[in-house]
Design a protein that fits this description.
The chain is mainly α and about 190 residues long. The chain is built from 6 helices and no strands.
């Protein structure tokens, strides 16, 4: 009888340990999926931004022919930012693009006809909306990354994370806090 009780205790402990491991594994999968969902949201907003930039550049070209170098730089940075990146590299590319767009908008101030063009005004509003949406998507993503990384790093879930190759996720950050502000697009 004693052997049966001991065997039952061992089976219960092994079952509890297995249940614990499966629960932690599923928690890690859930958190990783939230990170991937968050990155997808950023990706959608960035695509909307990339699609809008050529329209802005074309409208500006009509009015500001001698700003060609700035326009080409914006398009070049847009094209570079569209490639496949890690969140860290994407963040760096987006910072450069945001800076170039801000510079373009500052240069546009010298063209009163352009500033009053209805199409340009509409494009500015769309860009501002997209920039706000990018900021919200970035907050969601970074929150998901924070939660996921906490689970990956915490004991005892880190044992399961290490065993099944759950790696820490990168934040989508801006290095310069001033660049966290949306580009100035109002006149």
């Amino acid at each position: 009888m004693r052997g049966a009780n001991f065997l039952m205790l061992v089976v219960l402990l092994v079952g509890a340990a297995l249940f614990w491991a499966v629960t932690l594994y599923n928690r890690l999968v859930k958190k990783r999926n939230h990170v991937e969902d968050g990155w997808s949201g950023i990706d959608v907003q960035l695509k909307r931004r990339y699609d809008l930039i050529p329209n802005i550049v074309n409208v500006v070209k009509k009015y500001a022919e001698h700003e060609q170098e700035t326009l080409e730089k914006v398009i070049q940075l847009r094209n570079a930012a569209q490639g496949p990146h890690t969140p860290g590299q994407q963040s760096k590319d987006e910072q450069k693009l945001t800076h170039a767009l801000s510079g373009l908008m500052v240069q546009v101030e010298a063209y009163p006809e352009l500033r009053s063009n209805e199409n340009f005004i509409d494009l500015q509003k769309q860009l501002q909306k997209i920039e706000d949406d990018i900021q919200y998507a970035r907050r969601y993503y970074n929150g998901a990354v924070r939660e996921y990384n906490t689970v990956v790093q915490s004991f005892p879930s880190n044992l399961i994370a290490d065993k099944f190759n759950f790696l820490e996720a990168e934040f989508f950050e801006l290095e310069n806090p001033q660049e966290a502000q949306n580009p100035e697009v109002s006149f």
